[in-house]
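Exercise: predict the fold of this chain.
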Amino acid sequence: MRSDSQQAPLASIRIGIDASNLRAGGGITYLKGILGSLPSAPSRLESVTLWGGRSTLDQLPDVPRLTKVPLPHLDGELFRFDWKFLTRTAWQWTELPRLLARANCHILLQPGGTLTRSGRGIPAVTISRNMLPFSPREMRQYGFSLDLLRLLLLRAWQLSSFTRADGVIFLTPYAREIIEPLLPPSTSRKVRVIPHGVGEGFHPAAFTSKSASPDRRAFRWVYVSTVDAYKHHREVVEAMAILNRMGYSATVDFWGHHRDRELTDLLALMQRLDPGGTRIQWRGATPYSDLPELLRSYDGFIFASSCENLPHTLLEAMASGLPIVCSSAEPMPQILGDGGIYFHPERPHEVARAMASLQSDPELRKITVREALERSGSYTWARSAAATWEFLLEVATPTSPDSRQ
């Protein structure tokens, strides 16, 4: 942490970003979003140096003021519990300080939520991205396993990181309300709520086509999410079976990454409830660049997660003009507001009733879509990036008063 809060302001700031533990998903989307706005960042931001695995850097834009430094020995398999995290931790403690010094960085951003020492006494900022380690109820679903051990270690490490950080970014007021009371009071730690944004490609030219009634075919639902216990894919599958027994013509496609065990169980349930595979389909992962067009091909969006910080796929569905049925667990109602129909994610009958209410009522779809589109307009990457660069420059510039917000 910063040792002297009375130093003179720096004329230009060089930022270092440790992306060694970001390989896919929301973390990569976040880096794409803020780095894409780097050319328009304040002139006082001189440069950004970013360290990450080759697979991470390949997904990030090449823009002015950004230097990408590959760390090929830190690449690892997604969703596999291996010991590469020890390699990454050792690198953060031993090599990262030397690299920060070589790049003459004035501040370190570790967006993965785990903060090691910077090694030079420079300020450090981290981001609270993962709510799963702070939800004991959700963690119990993993039983006594390596996954549970990983989450417990991650909780301890992130609490330590937030405690030692000079600045902490929360993505939602909900996350701040849950996590900040767990931290010891501090007069030097700066805190800011900065939501992620949504890419321009998700915004449709018009939303009326998504609120119209698909009279001559089945209503096509889509759920885009990693297959994991707290995402409640099984409940959605059971809800689809209930919906069709209620007389509604509907299909659902699942898209996303997966954990092997959860996908095996999900596919078995799908085979039992829809043996012919005519109504329920597992489609697998899709390139992020294809997601806007993919969403526009469906009639409605399902989001059934019970543990989120800022659910990016929900924001993307909102911006795409899709009618939405959504989990009632926080922070989803804070984000979606009146832009969807809610259900308890562990009750398939509630999921089915929510789907039926939207599927059968074109006017309700029109009203909720309009509200969701309006709310999604406040989530832009330009706004998120501007707030992030401003916050980093503020933390990097020594000041005496406490500026907690």
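Check your answer against the key: The first helix runs from residue 26 to 36.
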